[in-house]
Amino acid sequence: MGAAVIIWLIGMIIFFFFLYLVVQSAIDNTTMAGNIQEIKDLLQEMKSSRVQAASQQNDENTPADLETAAYEDCPACGNRVRVTDKTCPDCGLTLHSDSEN
Ligand SMILES: [Zn+2]
């Protein structure tokens, strides 16, 4: 009789110990998942800000390639035209008036 109670008690202790472990690991998983999500968001933010900074740098600095630097997009049709062209060869839009420079 006494031995059975002790075995039952040990069984209950083991059961609650495992229950505790399961609950603890579940809590750890949720907090871990939240942390990972936070890290992901942070990395994405850093990446997007870095891309923005890079694109801004590209906008400020004229491209090093002279071939591309000598060209620009027509504001009307988007056709690639030479900077030296006064009119767009595609749509005929006046790109640079003579009075300018
Ligand atoms: Zn054009």
Could you explain how this protein is built, in words?
With 101 residues, the protein is mostly helical. The protein folds into 2 domains: 2-61; 64-101. Helices cover 62% and strands 6% of the residues. The protein contains 2 helices and 2 strands. The protein has helices spanning 2-60, 66-69; strands spanning 71-73, 80-82. A two-stranded antiparallel sheet has the order 1-2. Strand 1 and strand 2 (80-82) form a beta hairpin. The longest helix has 59 residues, at 2-60. The radius of gyration is 34 Å and the shape is rod-shaped. The structure holds zinc ion. Zinc ion binds next to loops. This is Zinc ribbon domain-containing protein.
Give a summary of the structure in a few sentences:
The chain has 101 residues and is mainly α.
Strand order of the largest sheet: 1-2
Helix percentage range: 55-70%
Ions, cofactors, ligands: which are bound?
zinc ion
- Tell me the radius of gyration: 34 Å
- Give the N-terminus to C-terminus distance in angstroms: 108 Å
Find the count of extended strands (DSSP E, 2+ residues): 2
Overall SS class? mainly alpha
- In DSSP terms, counting alpha (H) and pi (I) runs of 4 or more, how many helices? 2
Question: Describe the biggest sheet?
Answer: 2 strands, antiparallel
Q: Give the SSE string.
A: HHEE
What proportion strand? 5-15%
Report the principal-axis shape.
rod-shaped
Mean pLDDT: 82
Low-pLDDT runs of 5+ residues are none
> Into how many domains do the coordinates divide?
2
